[in-house]
Amino acid sequence: MKKTIAFAMAAIMLLLCGCGAVNSDNGSGDVTEATSDTTAKSSNTPRHKVIIDTDTGSDDAAALVLAALSKNIDILGITVLYGNVSLDKAAENALMTLEVCHVEAPVYIGADKPLKKERKEMVSVHGKDGMGDQDLIHPNHTAEHGDAIDFILDTIKSDPDEVEIIALGPLTNIALAVQKDPETMKRCKRIWSMGTTGFGVGNATPVAEFNVYNDAEAYDQVLRAGIPMTIMGLDIMGNEETKFNKEELSKMAQGNEKGVFLSKAFTKLFAFNQKSGNNMMLPDPMAVACLVWPDVLLETKSCYGEVCTDNDSTYGQVILYEEGAVYEAMPQIGSYNLDVVTKIDTKLFKDSFMSVLTKK
Ligand code: BDR
Ligand code: CA
Hints:
This protein is α/β, with parallel strands linked by helices.
């Protein structure tokens, strides 16, 4: 690991602050203090101590920006894995994004493939480098020597029932941590996962969402691990109001340093969505927004989730049984193991998000 003097200083500050991430900015980029009347104000909400687990493509990077600049979130560390891009690219993209935010947090390397299967070939909707292929990625820092799985376990062990995980990619790292030490993982306060189709349709297949489809076995193991979990599914991004159009993209491009960076990183993602006649979906930042601006999260439903792991066309589908619903087939439903987000304040999310990227 290349340790610069600045990094050592940051580590000292980290110890003094008692938190993982250090903002070397002068505070001007703070997300939580959004100023416009329409943006969320949540400075009185409790801080979340989080590990962010990410397969850093462009929308993960946007999620990292929100978390890194938020007063409500202490990033204890970032664990990366394969998914949108290969493991090494995911690490570089995460490191670069932190640098653009002037925030330092340790980045740990995790899984480079799913638990049981070889990595699937998928169309990268984020570009070959995961960040729009705009030659944006030249991080000065490198990842830590330690392993992501040990970092997750050690962090939870040292602060039981306090640490939350925001998972923005396949759940392979988290499943490996569960396999290694299930008791410690039960002391994880909550997992916030961008994953599943919710109650809608898939993007990897008609029934499966990308993060689950990459490693359905991992998703299954984590759902059974007895850890409180909130799921933000794809359906939440489903309506047009939630998506980002050309005008919004150009506002980001004329915005601040983060806005310029992300607007370039979104190049391929935007083009991919436009090809099918849609505006751009950003599911990962929306998941983080629920913690950054709690007023964004309007409703969750308690569900029992079952992951399809058979090697057929159902692979990666997650069946959600709603608590209180009556099913005529009378299926054997296990304990309600999930809170599934069913409603968010779209306008609040979008206004707040745009404000972060355009406020100078
Ligand atoms: C998920 O897949 C990836 O493309 C995004 O980063 C997000 O985590 C949406 O299905
Ligand atoms: Ca992702």
